[in-house]
């Protein structure tokens, strides 16, 4: 029943609640009208079957229920946000960091009233995070030479320490810093060269690239062993993505593929540690993952790329597909227009993922 202006409450919160309730009801009625119009006036090829129409009406009822639930969730979220704001801190400093204590004491330990000696009753303690900038230094290696006065041809000297880069400037720690900056912190080599230049150390980008290549050569057995260990797992994840690669002589980049093979059994308390191995390939042909995963016969969770099916046929691996990719197709159908069955599939997929 419609209300007159005089019958409306004066409380703003009550008016907001009425507007929200009206919006929910309008959404429910709009869904019903939309489904009935399609069922009544749509072309025969587009007319929904009875079971799909019922799904649409059920969806309208779900909208109404979701509206009530959404209001409760909003109210709960606001309460939680206020509580979190009250108890929020600016971050706890981890205990493994070294502590350098600074005592800020008073100059005069006499009472300002009676001049008797003051006694300590406690203290206030606060912590601040301090950063010591990276310090560059030069390691000077001296190797004394020894000769025998009685023997003219005898010269004895300790062998030179091995170097990661033969005849090069960097220590192993320097090369490790370049690798971490490039691959973990996404700092390109030319930017790293600029950082070193500010310290008076002029390194060409090609020099840094040589260091990276040399380190990659030494790390190759570790990478191969990691991939070998991953392939003994009963379950792996696999995915690939494009990667722009410099193409010398052509003045432009070409598109390569970077494949990732990962294991993470932590969600179900697996005993094996998590790990991931990245493998570069120049293209996306099916023989690439077949070669990478030679010897693997477990469960491989993948997206819809057809090359994985070829791998399963040739290797005996069992494919498990990704809910996110399955859901995406139904979402595209639901977003492009009224599609109650697609919407119901989305709801059921979400319930399965949530374990409901």
Brief synopsis:
By secondary structure, this protein is of the alpha/beta class. It is built from nine helices and seven strands. Among the domains are: about 165-220; about 230-320, no CATH class.
Keywords:
356 residues, alpha/beta, 5-stranded mixed sheet, two-stranded antiparallel sheet, 9 helices, flat
Description:
The structure is a single chain. β6 (299-302), α7 (307-315) and β7 (318-321) form a beta-alpha-beta unit. This protein has 356 residues and is of the alpha/beta class. It contains nine helices and seven strands; from the N terminus they run ααββαααβββαβαβαα. Among the domains are: 165-219; 231-321, no CATH class. It is flat, with a radius of gyration of 34 Å.
How is this fold's topology laid out?
Blueprint: H1 12-41, H2 50-87, E1 145-147, E2 155-157, H3 172-184, H4 189-198, H5 205-230, E3 235-247, E4 252-263, E5 275-281, H6 287-292, E6 299-302, H7 307-315, E7 318-321, H8 323-336, H9 340-354
Parallel strand pairs: 3-6, 6-7
Antiparallel strand pairs: 1-2, 3-4, 4-5
Helix pairs in contact: 1-2, 2-9, 3-5, 8-9
Q: Classify the secondary structure makeup into a structural class.
A: alpha/beta
User: How many helices?
Assistant: 9
Describe the global form.
flat
Radius of gyration: 34 Å
- Average the pLDDT over all residues and give the rounded result: 83
What does the oligomeric state look like here?
single chain
Share of helix, binned: 40-55%
Which residue ranges are poorly predicted, with pLDDT under 50 across at least 5 consecutive positions? 43-54
Strand order of the largest sheet: 5-4-3-6-7
Q: What fraction of residues sit in β-strands?
A: 5-15%
Run of helices and strands: HHEEHHHEEEHEHEHH
Tell me the major beta sheet.
Answer: 5 strands, mixed
